[in-house]
Amino acid sequence: MVESSEKIISMPTTSVDTVADNNLNIEYNIEETLEQKIISCVANSSAIFKSQQIDEPELTVEEKKIITSNVLHKSHSQFLSRFGKYLTIDLLEYFTIKNDNYEVIHYVNKLKRYFNSKTRQLDRKNRRYEALKVLVDKGEYFSETSMMKRNPLLYDNLIGRYLTEEQKKARDNLDTTNITFVNLLLESIERDHMKTLKKNQEDEEDDVLEENDSDSDTEDQICMNSKKIDKNISAWGEISNVETSCKAEEKGKELIVPVNNITTNEKNILRQEFVTQMYQNFLDGKDVDFDYSLVDDNEAYDNLDLRDQDEEEKYFDSETPEWIDEPQLTKEQDESEDELDKYMKCLKEQSHTSQHHLRESPT
User: pTM to 2 decimals?
Assistant: First the structure.
């Protein structure tokens, strides 16, 4: 009877141990599955795994997996810093399991923001705006000559056609101080490229104008036919709405300012319009030769006062590390976005107002 009693008492202990072991196995399997997904995800991405010489063969996927696995098991924070942007947001769960490392939490929270389309778009927008201000301060990228090379047709329409020969000569004059043959050759190549670009822009503009002319001819024919019909209607005392509409369209056509009949103030207005458009092109990502990845993914351009202050307090000022949920736009971030929009909208409104004054100027 005693032996039987001991057996009965020992059975629950075995059952509890089994449940605990099963839970551990399940947790281990989840981690193992996530780990394999992480390694596979990074190995099949465009990440840089090691520096290679030109004549070295490309790494195989298996070799990339080995490198990825080694970094992952060595340091989670180093892994997230190096490969985090090549993951997906659901794979970040792996790094939140039993992890109270401040640095890892910091990287995970930043990556959650990166993978959120709204906050990422806002970050990109603000970083480009900060980069714009830096480039404007430095002067070279947004100098008149550099902008002319990037958009020669727009420059010629708004500025170049109103310059005197002396002004054009001063603009195109090379600085012969310490000039080398290589610099002279590069300058010649750039000018040839600018001429080709301008020719391509003119061809594209002509194609658009031809399409518009075709549409306009169709509209004119409709107007003429409508007038004929309207004459019959008017005979019965009706008012011609179609004819009035056609006349309004004719009056709405933009007036072109003659080259020899433009004031200094109007030239300045056109110059501002050109600069504003070049700023907007940069912000919109239309500068084809500019590497936007140097800005869009560069935290050095973040406005810490507007974006990071509250988050850093969550990362480091609490007694225990804190995981944050999917980032939401704060009031300050909304205001930051609004300020950028207001700035560019203001520039556009100034330009449109200026153009209106130009069109109304007497010829």
Answer: 0.60
